[in-house]
Amino acid sequence: MSAQTSHRPLIEVRELTVRLSSGHVAVDRVSFEINRGECLSLVGESGCGKTLTALSLLKAVPREVGQSSAASISLEGRELTILSDKKMRPVRGEGISMIFQDPTAAVNPLFTVRSQIVETIRAHLRVSRKEAAERARSALVDAGLAETRRVLGSYPHQLSGGQCQRATIAMALATEPLLLIADEPTTALDVTVQRQILDLLKRLRRKRGMALLLITHNLSVVAQLADRVLIMYAGHIVESASAEKIFTAAAHPYTRALLDCLPSVEIRREEPPTIPGNVPQPGGWPSGCRFRPRCEFAEPECEKEQSLAPVEQDSSHKARCRFAGILFGKAHTGQGV
Amino acid sequence: MSATIPLVECRNLVKSFKSRALSGGWQQRSFSAVNGVSLRIGPEETLALVGESGCGKTTTGMLLLRLEIPSSGSTSFDGRDLEGLSARELRRLRRDMQMIFQDPYGSLNPRFTVARTLAEPMRIHEGLPGSKIAARIDQLLETVGLSPEHAGRYPHEFSGGQRQRIAIARAVSVNPRFVVADEPVSALDISVQGQILKLLLDLKKHLGMAMLFISHDLALVRQISERVAVMYRGRVVELACTEMIFANALHPYTRLLLSSVLKPALESKAKPQVGTQTGYSGIVTGGCDFAGRCPAETGNCSKSRPELIEVQPGHWVACPVLTAE
Fold first, then answer.
1. Interface of B with A in 187-226 (CB under 8 A)
2. The domain containing residue B22 runs over which residues?
3. Which of B47, B104, B206, B265 is most buried, taking the most CB atoms under 10 A from its CB?
4. Residue B264: which of A220, A23, A112, A305 has the closest Cα?
5. Is residue B121 part of a domain?
6. Residue-wise pLDDT tens digits, A122-171
């Protein structure tokens, strides 16, 4: 856990809902908070609503995709839900920045790295072009890029995937945000580069005391960075716990299934582990527990609505499963059900 | 290597691409994506080809299927050299050699229904009448874990995993003897990756086909392949059976790849990191390409190009330090 966290969280989200333009709900009353300097990880398969949740914090859900609403989203005590688009602009960048899965799609192919970082900086800070260029350079150094001169003068296609992701990280950090949202930051990268980018995020977080919202479907990535973990399934948060608890005493069958899916270089299994079936699409969610059709423990009782309830005495560990306390309350190895 | 007669074999494959680069005027530059690769794949064997992006894995796969024409070197399938074949003969042979691509969003025609996508190879290679094709399609869809009612739908109606199932159904529709699977699961969620791997394993057992499994993820490779070839900058640097690679990897690059795989458990604090600079200058040196990143590098590494040498039965490695004596 990160040290010196003040009592008030950095960002507090209450009852966040995203309704798609088709009318279906994709994110269903999600509440969470992130403390200063903390790394919270949002985990789930594609189509769970992870990215929509993150975009909602920036009020950046595209209009044609859907609309987000929340009882409250407060950043350092400031309510974001009531802000106009114009007032929201400085929050994006100075308050919250975001990096994406595909770094080559997140940058403009027609402009050099220098002009893109300088533009970002000057949109938020009143500094001269020259000073902005200097900040851009130091942001690249922070992001672990050695040949800053060459990279600054390069167009995105002249960089490798890893370099490009570092450049987008530099861009996101140049305005010194309080919270960085990293949406599958390493999924599109090679294993060797993935390690480097995760190490970079780890180092930057420590150096700047920046909070991180890490979105991923891969629990191995979570193990590298996260302090706390939210497991998301079909628009709901189904488990919320410290990273340690997730890896040693996961309480929700979905979390356990995700853990069991991780391939390992250390063992060869008889059969590759999977979660049968697919994530139900918004509009096609079953009643009651939404993981029910894919869950090996499902019983008729599971058709009733489940709430996110504390697992045993530990109120920081919550799960949305009626068996959570009974079946998984005890510590287990995290490998194999 | 394996004692049996290989189904697929290539010797000293080289593929160079020419590009024009602006450095003091336009200059013709040549870049060898694949640089002297020799491989053998036995019948019903799965060979994994592992390496980082840009190391020439996909080009090698394309060369084996003759979807790319090699600059030099030879490829043969079932004892026949692909070089001398006429277009007609090659086309007949294609029935036995199929490919599965990484991106199931890009590899399926969005304007074809599933039935039309699956019918195409059967029509071309087997000339079956429509009624028989329809029955085969239903059967194929069931084999890959979809249902016959999916036949009339379009690719956009499916999830990534389901699309990859369709792409696999297309590849196996003509009962190929050899399939190149190019990162078939890396675009998918981890929970779905297992499903697709399982399908590939089942199909392989069922149809008895050989496979080249291209991947950058060693954890997947462990699940599916019998032998592993590790590629670095257009060359094979280590080749051994899967168990040997995971128990006793010799080449420093293979070890780097293995240590890069994230462990699905909480990281112990302050873990030492290996040097992992990936900057590719494109400069061709005379020595080992990995020397610049290699923790075991000695002065001799840049002197001459290391050859792939058999250090133990079936375990080949190209490293001047390991094979010095």
1. 189-195, 197-198, 201, 216-220, 222-224
2. 8-263
3. B104
4. A220
5. yes
6. 998 899 999 999 999 998 998 888 888 889 999 998 888 888 999 999 99
